[in-house]
Amino acid sequence: MRSWTTTNGTRIFLVCSGRSNVYLVANETASFLVDAGMFAAAPLVTHGVARTGAPAPSYLVLTHTHFDHAGATASLRRRFNLKTIVCDHDVKFLGCGDSPFPEGNTRAIRALMAVIRRPGELMMQYPPAVTDIPVRGRLDMGPLGFDGTEVIHTPGHSMGSVSVVVDKEIAMVGDTLYGLALRSVMPPLVDEPIKLFFSLCALRDTGARLYLPGHGPAIPRERLEKLIDELS
Length: 232
Ligand SMILES: [Zn+2]
Ligand SMILES: [Zn+2]
Description:
With 232 residues, the chain is an alpha/beta fold. The chain has a single domain (3-231), classed as Ribonuclease Z/Hydroxyacylglutathione hydrolase-like (Metallo-beta-lactamase, Chain A, 4-Layer Sandwich). The protein is built from seven helices and 13 strands. The radius of gyration is 16 Å and the shape is globular. The N and C termini lie far apart (37 Å). The mean pLDDT is 93. One zinc ion binds at residues 20, 66, 68-69, 175, 214-215. Residues 20, 66, 68-69, 175, 214-215 line the site of one zinc ion (ZN).
């Protein structure tokens, strides 16, 4: 299983990497999940968590509430007795299991989204779940048992997008960066382009060396810097 360790010894595991990535962040005594994956991914995530040998997770941070990241929230919440941590903007979407998708950045992607949106509407819904800790701007996870970990608001792909920054070294960014395209790490779907630019700068300013996206492999800092240069 792919994993990373910060110089402080915090471990991050890629516990599931099907349609979207699910990460487990663990120290000696506790752990938490970042994203839940699709509705059908719950058993894979549970299996992945067991394989890490880390303490069972007690929290779930959702980078945002699109179905491919939040679909399994309700069942994982039950399975591990998790407390959910979600941007305050997305609490209502998680609460009804339906989070609207952004329009595409290009005419081609917008046309594609228009075609798949209607028939896809049902597919994009999932069992609703409660938010235990809403994030307003920023959340220090130190008091929850995770010193050096922060959740920061990184709107752009969607208004309710957040990123999890561990030990100022590794950031899990959901769909704020996209790891599956060769040429650019720009997400293909963006709700708020200007906000996205400032979120990318905020991610760069965390000083992190590695960015773990919701889709695709780890992104080195240089690729984020290159994207910011291109957009400037
Ligand atoms: Zn998304
Ligand atoms: Zn996604």
